[in-house]
Design brief:
Length: 250
């Protein structure tokens, strides 16, 4: 895939989930990028294939007949024994309870954790920012311009560092919404790779273990320092993203 930063947007475009501006941006990109055009064509072909009737089959006539006969027989048993239903219910109730409990445990075990949900939310915010006109609210490479721009918009003052000498150019800031609260988003650039750095207070003021993960083609590092939570996300490789994190903490 030549354009990993476009992969999520192409699926959203194919499903009609993008706004007009973003759709036009993707269409311009598709006109010049054969790889992404092939991805879109593959997505449409897969959706078309899943909708064909060839994937659905009627049950064999013999099996269908046996099932219907068994159901009719069971209905006759219930109709002939007015107390059978209560006895059956008494015997079956514990079994049903166990089945429901087992199903609940399986469902809970398959549910994403709060940490997984937060990681997904961070990556989604990063992808949204890559859409047209969503990257910065106040574009500037001057940390003394970006930092005051947050005043009055959020209830904390984020630390804004100039990391140009370390190879990470500050290109602006943006207000965003994450983890059920407004957050500061600082945007840095490393070559052609954009980094979203989300900053917001830790509600309990406590630290948490650092988290590194990869999701949907993006690398993500989360950490807590001095009562603030940080999340850096980018398609930049993990080694350089760690260097970015280290430069921020120095």
């Amino acid at each position: 895939m030549a354009c990993p930063e476009k992969s999520d947007l192409i699926e959203a475009y194919a499903d009609g989930e993008l706004d007009l501006g973003s759709s036009l941006e993707i269409e311009r990109h598709l006109a010049d990028c054969k790889d992404c055009a092939a991805v879109l064509e593959g997505h449409r072909a897969l959706r078309s294939a899943l909708g064909t009737a060839s994937l659905y089959h009627d049950a064999p006539a013999q099996l269908s007949s046996r099932v219907r006969a068994a159901v009719r027989k069971q209905e006759k048993v219930f109709a002939a024994s007015p107390f059978f239903g209560w006895r059956w219910l008494a015997v079956a109730a514990p079994v049903i309870s166990l089945v429901i409990l087992g199903w609940s445990l399986v469902t809970v075990s398959r549910m994403p954790s709060s940490e997984d949900l937060l990681n997904q939310e961070i990556v989604s915010a990063h992808v949204r920012s890559l859409m047209a006109a969503h990257l910065t609210d106040f574009p500037s490479s001057d940390q003394h311009t970006v930092k005051p721009a947050f005043n009055g918009r959020i209830d904390f003052s984020p630390e804004v560092k100039d990391l140009a000498s370390e190879g990470f150019a500050l290109i602006g800031g943006r207000l965003d919404y994450l983890d059920r609260r407004p957050v500061a988003a600082l945007i840095y650039q490393r070559r052609k790779h954009l980094i979203n750095l989300f900053i917001y207070p830790a509600e309990d003021g406590a630290g948490e273990r650092a988290v590194e993960t990869s999701l949907r083609g993006y690398n993500l590092i989360r950490w807590t320092r001095a009562g603030m939570r940080y999340a850096a996300v980018s398609d930049l490789n993990l080694v350089e993203l760690r260097s970015f994190q280290q430069a921020l903490q120095e």
